[in-house]
Write a structure and sequence with these properties.
This protein is mostly beta strands. The protein has a 28-stranded mixed sheet that branches. It has a 26-stranded parallel sheet. Strand 151 and strand 152 form a beta hairpin. The two termini are about 60 Å apart.
């Protein structure tokens, strides 16, 4: 058995060996030997271990060969086609770096940072304020009552805004004016014989002309040659000069000639200069030739002989062999600049050939030319003409001169021949007194005028066609456009041959839009026919005439005529015989259709109709003074306003069933001395009478009946307000139906043929000048039976010029049109309403009674509206009674309570009276009694004198609404107004209303008197309102009581002299005011000529004024003015105010003033005044003055007289001032002015009283001043709390001249005389005494005082004289100090005492004679008796800050702008004003100094925790390190300044320090010193950058200066660090990190693609990539970032053999980086990657090699968010980076099972990055130096892979892989970057260096499921950790699809 086992083993081994195939297969011998040896060993019992080992090696080798064979078979069976694998990958990556801060600086810039031995640099904190102690202070309370900024604008009534619908009746006037005909005169011409012969020449002596039969600039056959030449012809009487230049000449061809350039006598035309020529013309043509002239500028000038002109061209047409023609080409430009010149003249001789000139060029005459002619025919001495002489114009002719002629045909041609003028070009007659074409009286034959294009007559007094002899017009065409002024189209003036008529059939006559006073045809003499049926002659322009036939002429016109604009008359017969057919239409005003003047006649052309329709205003369809008979039918219509159908001064007959119509306010048929006969035959005529028009009117004497309506039927329609007939009476008597019937039958015929239809408000009759009528009798005027029929709803009658009595009782409803009262219209009719009658209405714009009186009737009763009843209207704009030039008397009740309603309305002289029983009620915006001169002065109503007379003896209630007026008057210039509210009159007014309102629009003597009562308790009212009136007196003898806010008793705004009086019986009361600048006022005036006199009582409420006067005089002579709290008794603006006894003013409290004067007002007071508490007796401002002689009594906190602004106050001896309380001031003056006090001031009863205060002016005191104690509040140490204390002072002068000779006594802690900043020496010769402690006799600051008086102070702790801040004291008086702890003289801050003979006696204990402090000086020449003289040295108390050192120079001059924000105070400097520091002065130490910053305050108590801040504005525009703001706090200026307290100052700018210091003048300077940036940057990564900035700061200009200016505005160190880091370019510190992130994204994508199994031999794998990530590093200055990326990577792999796979790839990524730099900076990178790849797999070994290269385009938007006021700066950097990576991996795979393997591996990755130098754009741009870097990373690891099928029936597998590795960086990818701020730095500074990488552990994992050749989904992750807290984690998701 043992042997068998061995044999079986041997067979197995053999079979394995046998199956092995390879190049090294053992031979059979070797196998045999092995077998034998093994058997042998078995048999011998020896071991076979060696043989077994050999067999094992052979088997392992065979296993490998089998596996390799399997791999080969797998490769062989793989398909050849191309497979696509598509991957979609999303990932998130987070990387955190360590801290490398110490490689760049000592500290981290985050002050709170503390990690791993790196600490943040603490912030230095805000600058500590530095302060200066300003010393002692005597505070002065703020006393002021500002001048009013009055905005007093009471509601101004607008007057009546509605319409008064007064029915007026007026007859339109008809006036026809014909043109005055003034024709231009002409005269004929005579010529010397011109000679014969047609030889050719150009010679000065040539007969006939110097140029004969010669073509110029033409080849002689019609072709132009040469360039443009010049011909000058200058005429001087009978001779002329001629020159030719640049001109070619060729002779003529024809007859005896051939074209030649060398004719007989020829000389070259070019260069001709001849003078003194005498020939008739310049160029002549004789005989049958064509002569051409081209390309020539002709100047034809000078002055010829009148009546015998020289010609430019002349034809003497007597040769019989052809036509003679001048051809003037289009290139010929002729300027005729002289006078008495002729362009072309043609003379005829017997013959058969025509002669003429054809013009294609341009001919222009000058405006200064006279009597020039373009074309004329010339008669010879004899012979008969049998040819046509002509002028044809194809070019342009313009006549600009005077008395010129275009064409004069003066030719007696043979039968069928004559002169001709033809126009197809352009002709303009622009001059004056000129003719176009004139046919003279010698014309014979057949002249022709052919105007194919119109002749334009544009000038004035011109004639287009003058016909002086009849001619056959059949072959002529006339087109004329008259567009000038006073001109004519055609004028015919000839004696016609009996039986002959000239007929025009071809014509177009028009007037243009600019035409004025022109006539198309004026037939002065002769017979003309215009026959163009259906054609239309159009007339534009104004004041024009169409066809005018003069006296004795005969005219027939058969065409339509249309006139468009005003005052045009289409057809006129002026004592002529005229026939017409056609339609005439006019559209303008005063444009009449058919006009017959004088003895003229007008008939229609037999069998043809005539129609005249005029549409303009004041136009007449047919105007006839002669005889008119129109039998052909047609329409006659006048459709405008105030027109007339037929106006007849002569017999007028119109037959036919026609249509007649008149428009509004006109007359249909007006018989004015001529009878009108209409005959409709058997037909029907329709007559329409427009609104307001009259059907018929008879005026003047004529055969009766004057108007006849014969035969047929006449349907007459009367439109709204139209009238049928007018009955005219004699001004007296009554009207009855009988009298009316008689009148109608006498004056009219055919009335029964009339059928009337009456429209709304129309009436059949108007009764004119009828006398009187009762309203009840009006309905009896019936016209029944008089006419054919009457229909419609018209009214009964119209009353005109009479009187009507409303005799009915009960209610009359004005709204009911059928009411009998409403059926009667009236004009100029007086109306009486009896008691018991009520007129009521509700409609808008309704007027109960209204009329206008524009005539003078026999009695005034016709003009009076008398109401004894009741009128009640409720509609808007309604009026109770209205009358113009009449009288209104109301004894009843008139109510018009709708908006804008008026009770009684009188205009133009109407007298308005509201009787004692009269009551007038109005509502919103209503007016009770309203009188005006004229509503429209341009169109006055009535015939009055324009005066306004209103009297109210009754009651006017205007208080039910708002904006109403009780009495309202308005007068025009030159008229008078008198408004009286009588003793029984009561006017009640409501809100925003006025009792009496009056406005005068001219200088008149008006009177406004209130004897009654004007009452209101509503807001915004005025008792009497005088608006813009001159010469008006206003007197209040009654009561005006207006108790609400914004009420004004009398309010005057005017431009003239007004006397305003509140008499002794007058009482004015106005209410409290809510707005002091819009207060209630008793009397208000704002005019320089006004005088306000008050002897009555005025009571004004809180915040209100008694009297306000601007430039007006005020006399308060009696009565009481009583004002409430904070009010003012009398307020004057540039006014003179006199207050005399016994007048008085009673004041309220809380800032009330007795009198207030501004702008130069003068107040003289002679009355005693009790000022009261917290009030002002008088306020004197802006140059005003006060003279007081009255005794004043003050209570608490009051001021007798206060001034601000250069005033003068004199208090005389009688003006004693007694202060019964505390905190009073006798006289207070600010900002200049003089105080003279001669009256005693006593303020001893209270504390803190001050006698006199003056700031900036002068004080002269001669009287005694006694003040009590000060109220000093002290702290726990006994120091005064100045803001809580108040002082008593006898005299207080600040910047004032002070002279005291009075005696002053003072109390505890008080000052006798205080002088500061005095401009002159202050003198004290009076005595100053005190028995109280703490008193100061004289206090001097920055002033000089001469004391000659005696100062005796008996209290303890007193000072005789205190001098501070360079105060100088000259003492020759005696100072006696009897109290303890006192000082005779106290000197501080450079003050001086010159005791020049004075005596200082110190009697108290512990006292000093003189105390010196701070550089003060004692000069003693007198006597000092004391125990002590002390000095504290020359140094200021407190710290003295050093003056900063000078480094560089700069310029700044500060213009301060202090602004407060809560409790913050800032000094903000405008750097536009500046001056350099002056060496050798106390400015030395600064580069530049500002004098303009001032901060003046009596005391400035600033909290040290909230100091005054200096903004950085002063640095803007300069860059120096030391500035001085001089005298910022100025205690010595006239404006006042700080002289006490402590002022802390600090710079708002982080990099500037502010140091205050008291200067030698005692003022406070602020030194501004630049703090080096290094103070803030040292120890940080940008320390070198900070030093570079410091080095460049001083003297910087341009962009560098702008950057430094921005840095100066940085206020805190946190912003400084952020901005400085950004300025240094911190975002560029880690450029290579970002490039590495992009490379890793590609590498991860590539690894994913390569690990995916290939199912075919060729594969394309595409990965769509999207991802986000973030990178953060703790290294200070290395900016972290967030990024997002999107892109694609495509890999193509080819399996060359089963061991080797080759591939190449292309990828693109777009990556956006958002930097965490606190400035929102960003970067966009576009990257392209190319790669080649190899994989080798054999015997379990795997080798991969990936070589990739990238180019990235970077676009960086770097921002810097500056602090205010600067905004964001934006820089843009564009650059490229280039990188290459080689990644190599070698591993050995071990199979752990069928689906699991393990592979240890080693790898080596090398990356190289390079980037050139680049520079950003933008102000703060940086330049980044070019750089390159290497990364070399070996790594080792182990990879585990596994897969698991999900089931036997599915292809899905779970797959996963884990990778554990370690890598180490041998090189350094994060090289330090360098940059420079281009605008400032010359060299580069270091950026922060990112942390270097070293070793780190990396773990990767992927897990997913797939069908290998279809789909897959995978989740992957990666985590790495290194030293110094470095870590990285990444997670992603991948989707796979195979195609």
């Amino acid at each position: 058995m043992k042997i068998k086992k061995l044999l079986m083993f041997s067979l197995a081994v053999n079979s394995v060996i046998a199956s092995y195939a390879g190049a090294a297969t053992p031979t059979a011998t070797n196998y045999d030997r092995l077998y034998n040896n093994m058997v042998k060993n078995i048999d011998s019992g020896k071991t076979n271990d060696a043989n077994y080992k050999l067999i094992e090696n052979i088997l392992n080798k065979r296993n490998k060969e089998l596996k390799d064979l399997y791999a080969q078979s797998d490769y062989i069976v793989k398909p050849e086609y191309l497979e696509w694998q598509i991957f979609f990958t999303g990932f998130y990556d987070h990387e955190r770096g360590g801290d490398n801060t110490l490689a760049s600086g000592q500290y981290h810039s985050d002050p709170d940072y503390n990690d791993d031995g790196v600490k943040g640099k603490p912030l230095q904190g805000t600058q500590a304020p530095k302060d200066v102690d300003l010393g002692i202070r005597i505070p002065l309370k703020n006393v002021d009552k500002p001048a009013l900024n009055l905005n007093v604008s009471p509601t101004v009534p607008v007057g009546f805004t509605g319409t008064i619908d007064v029915v007026k009746f007026d007859l339109p006037s008809v006036n026809v004016v014909l043109p005055t005909i003034t024709l231009p005169t002409i005269s004929g011409f005579t010529f010397d014989p011109t000679g014969n012969g047609d030889d050719m020449w150009i010679r000065p002596g040539g007969g006939v002309a110097p140029i004969a039969q010669i073509n110029l600039n033409n080849d002689g056959l019609g072709t132009a040659t040469g360039s443009t030449g010049t011909m000058n012809v200058t005429v001087n009487g009978g001779t002329y000069d001629l020159s030719l230049k640049d001109t070619n000449a060729v002779g003529v061809q024809g007859a005896a000639h051939t074209l030649t350039t060398n004719p007989d006598g020829y000389v070259p035309a070019d260069g001709v200069e001849w003078t003194g020529l005498t020939q008739v013309s310049a160029m002549k043509l004789v005989g049958g030739h064509d002569v051409y002239v081209d390309n020539l500028n002709i100047n034809f000038g000078g002055t010829g002989t009148a009546g015998k002109p020289k010609m430019l061209f002349h034809i003497d047409a007597h040769n019989p062999y052809g036509s003679s023609v001048f051809h003037v080409g289009s290139g010929v430009n002729t300027n005729i600049t002289g006078s008495n010149l002729m362009y072309f003249g043609v003379q005829y001789h017997p013959g058969n050939y025509d002669a003429g000139l054809i013009n294609d060029g341009t001919i222009t005459t000058s405006a200064t030319g006279v009597n020039n002619v373009i074309y004329a025919t010339i008669n010879p001495a004899g012979g008969t003409n049998t040819r046509n002489l002509y002028f044809t114009n194809n070019g342009t002719i313009t006549l600009n001169g005077d008395k010129e002629i275009l064409s004069m045909i003066d030719l007696a041609g043979g039968s069928g021949f004559g002169g001709q003028f033809t126009n197809t070009g352009t002709i303009n007659i622009n001059g004056t007194n000129s003719y176009g074409v004139i046919l003279t009286s010698t014309v014979a034959g057949l002249p022709k005028v052919t105007l194919n294009t119109p002749l334009n007559i544009n000038g004035s007094n011109n004639v287009g066609l003058g016909i002086l002899k009849e001619f056959d017009t059949s072959q002529s065409l006339i087109k004329l456009n008259v567009n000038g002024a006073n001109s004519y189209g055609i004028v015919a003036d000839y004696n016609p041959t009996v039986g002959t008529t000239s007929t025009f059939k071809n014509y177009e006559l028009t007037t243009g839009a600019a035409s004025n006073n022109n006539t198309l045809l004026y037939l002065k003499a002769g017979n003309l026919v215009f026959d163009n049926t259906g054609a239309t002659t159009t007339m534009a322009g104004t004041n024009n005439f169409g066809f005018v036939a003069g006296s004795g002429t005969t005219l027939s016109v058969d065409n339509n005529i249309s006139a468009i604009e005003d005052k045009n008359l289409p057809l006129v017969s002026d004592s002529a015989t005229v026939q017409y057919a056609g339609n005439i239409t006019t559209n303008g005003s005063e444009s009449h259709g058919l006009v017959v003047k004088g003895t003229g006649t007008l008939t229609n052309i037999v069998g043809k109709a005539v129609s005249s329709v005029v549409s303009g205003d004041s136009s007449v369809a047919l105007y006839n003074e002669g005889t008119t008979i129109l039998n052909g039918g047609g329409d006659l219509k006048s459709l405008g306003n105030k027109g007339t159908i037929i106006f007849a001064k002569g017999a007028t007959t119109v037959t036919g069933a026609n249509n007649y119509e008149v428009g509004t306010n006109g007359i249909g048929f007006y018989s004015n001395g001529g009878a009108i006969t209409l005959d409709a035959g058997t037909g029907t005529s329709n007559i329409k009478i427009g609104a307001g028009s009259i059907f018929s009117y008879i005026d003047g004497t004529t055969t009766l009946p004057a108007i006849n309506f014969n035969n047929g039927t006449y349907n007459v329609a009367l439109d709204t307000g139209a009238t049928g007939f007018i009955y005219k009476g004699n001004g007296s008597g009554s009207v009855t139906a009988t009298s009316l019937q008689t009148y109608m039958n006498t004056n009219y015929g055919g009335l029964t043929n009339l059928n009337f239809n009456l429209g709304t408000d129309s009436r059949l009759f108007v009764l004119e000048e009828y006398g009187s009528v009762d309203m009840s009798a009006v309905s009896g005027l019936s016209a029944s039976g008089m006419f054919g029929s009457i229909t419609g709803d018209g009214k009964s009658a119209f009353l005109w010029k009479g009187k009507m009595v409303v005799d009915s009782t009960g209610n009359i409803n004005l709204d009911d049109p059928n009411e009998p009262f409403n059926k009667v219209d009236r004009s100029a009719v007086g109306v009486t309403i009896n008691a018991g009658t009520t007129l009521s209405g509700t409609q808008a714009n309704q007027v109960a009674l209204a009329d206008i009186f524009s005539f003078t009737p026999s009695g005034i009763e016709y003009r009076e509206m008398l109401n004894g009843g009741i009128i009640n209207l409720t509609g808007t704009n309604a009026v109770g009674i209205y009358t113009a030039s009449g009288k209104i008397t109301n004894n009843g009740t008139v109510s018009s309570t709708g908006t804008n309603g008026i009770g009684l309305f009188g205009e133009n002289g109407t007298v308005i009276s509201n009787g004692t029983s009269g009551i007038v009620n109005v509502g919103n915006m209503g007016i009770g009694l309203y009188g005006i001169s004229n509503q429209n002065s341009a169109t006055p109503q009535g015939n009055g004198n324009g005066s306004v007379n209103i009297t109210n003896s009754g009651t006017v209630n205007a208080n039910s609404g708002t904006n109403a007026v009780g009495m309202y008057g308005v007068t025009d210039a030159g008229t008078i107004g008198n408004l009286l509210n009588d003793t029984t009159g009561i006017i009640n007014i409501g809100q925003s209303s006025q009792g009496i309102y009056f406005r005068d629009n001219g200088a008149n003597s008006n009177s406004i008197i209130n004897n009654g009562q004007i009452l209101s308790s509503s807001l915004d009212t005025v008792g009497i309102f005088l608006d813009n009136s001159t010469g008006t007196d206003v007197t209040n003898n009654g009561t005006i009581s207006l108790t609400a806010d914004k009420s004004r008793g009398i309010y005057v705004t005017n431009v003239g002299t007004t006397n305003i009086a509140n008499s002794s019986t007058g009482n004015i009361t106005v209410g409290d005011s809510s707005d002091i600048n819009d207060p209630s006022i008793g009397i208000y005036s704002q005019n320089g000529g006004d005088t306000i006199s008050n002897s009555g009582n005025i009571t004004a409420g809180v915040n209100s004024l008694g009297i306000y006067a601007k430039e007006a005089a005020v006399n308060h002579t009696g009565g009481i003015i009583k004002v409430g709290d904070n009010g003012t008794g009398i307020y004057g603006d540039h006014s003179n105010i006199t207050i005399s006894s016994p007048a008085s003013i009673e004041l309220g409290s809380n800032g009330t003033a007795g009198a207030y004067g501004i702008n130069g007002s003068v107040i003289t007071n002679g009355s005693a005044l009790n000022v009261g508490n917290a009030n002002f007796g008088f306020i004197i401002q802006s140059g005003s003055s006060l003279i007081n002689n009255g005794a004043m009594t003050l209570g608490e906190s009051s001021v007798f007289a206060y001034s601000n602004g250069g005033a003068s106050i004199t208090n005389n001896a009688g003006g004693t001032i007694l202060m019964n309380g505390s905190n009073n001031i006798g006289v207070y003056m600010d900002n200049g002015g003089t105080i003279t006090n001669n009256g005693a001031i006593d303020g001893t009863a209270g504390v803190s009283n001050i006698g006199i205060v003056n700031v900036g002016g002068s004080i002269i005191n001669t009287a005694s001043i006694n003040v009590g104690d000060s109220a000093v509040v002290r702290d726990s140490q006994g120091n005064p709390i100045v803001n809580s204390s108040s002082y008593a002072v006898g005299i207080y002068g600040d910047g004032a001249n002070v002279s005291n000779s009075g005696n002053i006594t003072i109390g505890k802690d008080s000052v006798g005389l205080y002088a500061k900043n005095a401009p002159t020496v202050v003198t004290n010769s009076g005595s100053i005494d005190s028995s109280a402690s703490g008193a100061i006799g004289l206090f001097v600051e920055n002033s000089t005082i001469n004391n000659t008086g005696n100062i005796t102070l008996n209290g303890n702790s007193s000072m005789g004289i205190a001098a501070v801040n360079h105060g100088n004291v000259i003492n020759t008086g005696t100072i006696t100090m009897n109290g303890d702890y006192s000082k005779g003289v106290y000197l501080r801050v450079g003050s001086i005492l010159d005791n020049a003979g004075g005596t200082i006696i110190i009697n108290g204990a512990n006292s000093e004679g003189v105390s010196l402090d701070a550089s003060s000086t004692l000069i003693n020449a007198g006597t000092i008796t004391t125990n002590n003289i002390t000095s504290v040295g020359q140094a200021e108390s407190g710290d003295k800050y050093p003056i900063p050192s000078i480094i560089n120079s700069g310029i700044i001059n500060v213009n301060e702008n202090f602004k407060t924000d809560g409790l913050n105070i800032e000094i903000k400097v405008d750097p536009t004003t500046m001056r350099p520091a002056v060496p050798g002065t106390d400015d030395e130490g600064a580069s530049f100094v500002s004098y303009s910053v001032k901060f003046n305050s009596p005391y400035f108590d600033v909290d040290a925790d909230n100091p005054i801040k200096v903004t950085a504005d002063f640095t803007q525009g300069t860059n120096e390190t030391v500035y001085k703001l001089k005298d910022v706090f100025n205690p010595t200026t006239p404006d006042g300044g700080p002289n006490g307290g402590i002022i802390p100052v600090v710079s708002k700018s982080l990099t500037w320090a502010a140091t205050p210091q008291i200067n030698s003048s005692g003022n406070i300077d602020i030194w501004m010193q630049k703090i080096p940036y290094d103070n803030f940057t040292s120890g940080l990564w940008y320390a070198g950058f900070g030093k570079a900035l410091d080095a460049k700061y001083g003297g910087a200009t341009g962009e560098a200066l702008t950057i430094f200016n921005k840095m100066d505005y940085i206020e805190n160190e946190s912003d400084f660090r952020r901005i400085t880091a950004s300025l240094a370019g911190n975002v560029y510190s880690n450029i290579n990190q970002r490039e590495d992130d992009i490379a890793k994204t590609f590498e991860n994508s590539l690894s994913l693609l390569q690990d995916s199994t290939n199912n075919t031999k060729e594969n394309v794998k595409v990965n769509i990539i999207t991802g986000k990530g973030s990178t953060k590093e703790d290294t200070d200055g290395v900016v972290g970032y967030d990024y997002s990326t999107v892109g694609v990577l495509a890999l193509r792999e080819v399996e060359r053999t089963y061991k080797n796979t080759f591939g190449y790839s292309l990828g693109y990524l777009h990556t956006g980086f958002e930097f965490n730099d606190e400035n929102s900076s960003e970067e966009w990178v576009d990257t392209i990657q190319l790669g080649v790849h190899n994989k080798y797999d054999t015997n379990g070994w795997s080798l991969r090699n990936d070589l990739t290269g990238r180019v990235s385009m970077h676009n960086v938007d770097r921002n810097i968010d500056w602090t205010a006021p600067n905004g964001r700066s934006e820089m843009n950097g564009i650059f490229e980076t280039y990188s290459i990576t080689s990644d190599n991996k070698l591993g050995k795979e071990f199979e752990l099972s069928k689906n699991t393997s393990l592979m240890p591996y080693g790898a080596f990755r090398v990356m190289y990055v390079t980037r050139p130098t680049f520079e950003e754009s933008g102000l703060e741009r940086v330049q980044v130096e070019g750089n390159d870097a290497w990364s070399v990373k070996p790594r080792a690891g182990i990879e585990l892979k596994a897969s698991l099928p999900l089931g036997p029936k599915t292809a899905w597998k779970l797959k996963g892989a884990l990778d554990f590795g370690y890598e180490y960086e041998l090189a350094n990818l994060n090289e330090r970057e360098k940059a420079r701020l281009v605008s400032i730095e010359d060299g580069y500074h270091d950026l922060a260096k990112p942390e270097d990488e070293s070793g780190k552990f990396i773990t990767k994992a992927i897990f997913g499921a797939e069908i290998q050749d279809r789909y897959g989904i995978f989740i992957n992750g990666e985590y790495s950790i290194g030293n110094h807290s470095q870590e990285d984690y990444r997670a992603g998701l991948t989707l796979k699809a195979v195609f």
